[in-house]
Amino acid sequence: MRFNDLSLEPTRVTFWGASAALEIRSPLPGVLRVRHIPSPGHSSMAARELAAKHSWSVVAHAELPLSVRQDKAAGLTVVQAEGLSLEVRPEQGTWVLREPGGRELARCEGFSGETMPDYPVNRYRSRLSLHAPPDEAWLGFGEKVGTLDKRGMHFVFWNTDVVPHHPDTDPLYQSIPFSMGLRGGTAWGFFLDESWRLEVDVAAEDPTRVRWESAGPELDAYLFAGPLPADVLRRYTALTGRPPLPPLWSLGVQQSRWGYENAREIRSVIRDYRAHQLPLDCVYLDIDYMEGYKVWTWDRSRYPDPAGLAGEAAAQGVKLVTIIDPAVKAEPGYRVYDEALAGDYLVRNDRGSVLLGEVWPKPAAFPDFTREPVRTWWGQLHRAFVETGVAGFWNDMNEPACFRLINGNETFPINSAPAADLGKVEGPTLPHDARHGDRRHLEVHNVYALGMARAAYEGLRELAPERRPFLLTRAGAAGIQRYAAVWTGDNSSYWAHLELSIAMLLGLGLSGVAFSGADVPGFLGRATGEMLVRWTQLGAFYPLLRNHSAKGTPYQEPWRFGEPYLSITREWLERRYRLLPTLYTLMYEASQEGLPAMRPLVMYAPDDQEALRMDDAFLLGRELLVAPVIRQGRSHRHVYLPEGRWLPFFDLGLSAGGVREGRQHVLAEAPLRTVPMWLRAGGALALTEPALHTTSANWAHLTWHIHAAPRVEAHLYEDAGEGYGASRRTRLVGEGTADRFVLERTTEGALPSARETETLCLYALTEPKEVLGAREHRYVEDVLLVEVEAGWTRLEVRL
Ligand code: GLC
After folding, report:
1. Would you say residue 656 has pLDDT above 70?
2. Is 696-798 in the same CATH topology as 5-132+186-226?
């Protein structure tokens, strides 16, 4: 690729070659957009104007100023933006990304492309190659299997319904082509804003290169400055959007099963939860609630009175969530299908007629969520369900999944569908050439679910403006965090899947998806009592905690496994509710800054290779290191503690053994009841009392667990737990010296306090001589327990 011409505008710099172009802009500080256009014929090169390009993922559209410096002798043109610069070599068509200090962050070794004339539309292959220094780690890539560092792997981005999936299955349901490079403690980000089918080879084929390939005509890349992983993530989520704060109830315990037969069974699940004194906030209704798999209907023989059921559940503090699949049964007389036909809302095949396939409904047609009128129509379809009292929606099969294709009177299994008649099909979905308005499926397949989730989210905001939407989705694309939580699809009750879920959720979190979970204790297969316990212990820290299982598998509600599993599971579900002040605050932070609740250790130890390899442990927020047991029969586990001082805080309580220095490997004792955890020096954790269900996030009882250090900082966000009313933000700042520890509390926001009791548990302080500002205090086994008045502002501990 060679460029011989340059056009300069205040916010846009474009390099032109015989048939290629490279366009540079800056939408945000520390972010550059670089459109690599290798294919002739796509844009009007002669007129020196690139075709505008639609983005499904990006929500920040500012245009910041750029400056340009040319170094003719070195053959360089340097494009300077706030926080980053790009050094382009027009002769070679390559670039180097640098920090303001001049340090090299990334290097593009070239890009190229081909257009292959084809019927009905041309096909493309566009490639871009990044240099991969041997000591660089590659994190992110959305919902992918494997270790945290994806070096040595190859991924396809093509949303796919896979049952069952395995620890090496690719692709899965989500396509988020975002990665974070990490080298020598410095992070940078790369996002390919392409909805087309993509592939990436992460230094697998060639250990010195990361190669991206798109089936589309260009490579629209965004480059993000760090220097820390959290900085990259803040910038990436400023570009693609942040997750809205979910309703508090959706952070409670969720129970689901494909196979609950009817309203009677739903009632008995709720009754049994309560009879066993188990916390529960919501129950899901899977596909069997519909009449003949017709979306937006109820099977009245199974659910004679859905509103009555919702009311009874509500009286127990339980919400209902219904599954909503995109495929619409193609049956004349069925209102949803009739409206879709009349409005021209459906995906069409290459020949122009409505595309028909089979999913749960047969035959089925597919709404085209890439078009706005279709999204508006679909959004409004939520109305009757909202009025019935359904509190949340579960979007599934939205890759979209399609098991068979129909052509006239014949149906074809996807794998043997005749391409000549039905188009090329990859995975159980629609053909590449299916029509979405004037786009083809190959271009928009990966954003189908994003459009569906957007339709639901925007519809719900309009239909119930006083409530926060709760949406759960299986498929998605970059930006899905704006609308929905994500669960990792059809896993199995394997120990390997329990372990895998950690790296998968960490990867999703590093790709902007903060609200996520995996089915506990596995969707397919047979779980054991031990697995239920170990998976619930891990799930207690998933942002989304749902027990779900497949039809035909043994039931796996907590009481199905007997004792001691039931009691231990109850203890952990209760701990989940105790953790809610912290988890809710973390979800609030996610909505403000894009950082996930579950974070890899390496996030705060970016130059520590040992921390990078720890993908079977994680941090909840910044302060709490969680090392769940992930293997059968184990009573101990190894864990690496990164830099810092760590207070053992097993099972959210003080445990034997003293504070540990970090940068060391430790062996933790973890009998079945126990999850090893440590609280970082300077960190604080806000806990409340257990409850059977959530009510408000304006906590009546609060206990702060504070690991005293020269500097302590902690935050708490509170509000009603629902809606868009008043909130209160509390900040604790502590300062410790040899002879005293002072803690100051400030608050902000209009929400009046509901506090009845507030306790501070201060760790790592020697026995105090005097405590000022407390209502009462005691020193018990190395812990200073302090009761404070609701409106306290200052505590001083003299040592
Ligand atoms: C898909 C979903 C699963 C659901 C089932 C039936 O397999 O991933 O969670 O239970 O469909 O709707």
Report:
1. no
2. yes
| 313: CB partners within 8 A, 6+ apart | 266, 270, 283, 319, 320
- Do the bridges between strand 392-395 and strand 471-473 make them parallel or antiparallel, or are there none, so unpaired? parallel
Residue among 149, 213, 490, 758 flagged as catalytic: 490
CA gap 181, 229 in Å, rounded: 9
Rounded to an integer, the average pLDDT of 167-195 is 97
The rounded distance, in Å, linking the Cα atoms of 61 and 54 is 12
Look up residue 676 and give its amino acid.
P
Residues in the chain: 799
Contacts for 657-665: CB closer than 8 Å, 24+ residues apart: 659/707, 659/763, 659/764, 663/608, 663/610, 664/640, 665/610, 665/638, 665/639, 665/640, 665/641
- Per-residue pLDDT for 1 more than 90? no
Give domain limits for the chain: 5-132+186-226, 696-798
Give the tens place of pLDDT for each residue, 669-680: 999 999 999 999
The whole-number pLDDT of residue 42 equals: 53
Report CA(258)–ligand 1 centroid distance (Å): 7
CATH T-level topology, domain 696-798: Immunoglobulin-like (2.60.40)
Instruction: Identify the residue whose C-alpha is closest to ligand 1 atom 10.
Output: 258
Q: Whose CA is nearest to atom 5 of ligand 1?
A: 258
* % of residues, the chain, pLDDT over 70: 99
The answer to whether 589 is a known catalytic residue is no
Instruction: Dig out the tokens for 759 from the structure.
Output: 């306790």
pLDDT the model gives residue 46: 72
**Average pLDDT score, the chain:** 96
Is 399 part of the annotated catalytic residue set? Answer: yes
Q: Of 286, 358, 396, 722, which residue is the catalytic one?
A: 396
Q: Which of 201, 399, 433, 722 is catalytic?
A: 399
Nearest CA to ligand 1 atom 4: 258
- Rounded CA-CA distance 652/128 in Å is 47
Cα 566 to averaged position of ligand 1 atoms, centre (Å)? 26
Around ligand 1, the residues with Cβ closer than 6 Å are: 163, 258, 286-287, 323, 396, 474, 489-490, 523, 548
Residue ID of nearest Cα to ligand 1 atom 7: 490
* Max CA pair span of the chain: 87
**Amino acid at site 290:** M
Q: Tens of pLDDT along 411-439?
A: 999 988 888 888 999 999 999 999 999 99
Active site annotation includes 372: no
Identify the CATH homologous superfamily for domain 5-132+186-226: glycosyl hydrolase (family 31) (2.60.40.1760)
- Model confidence at 478: pLDDT above 60: yes
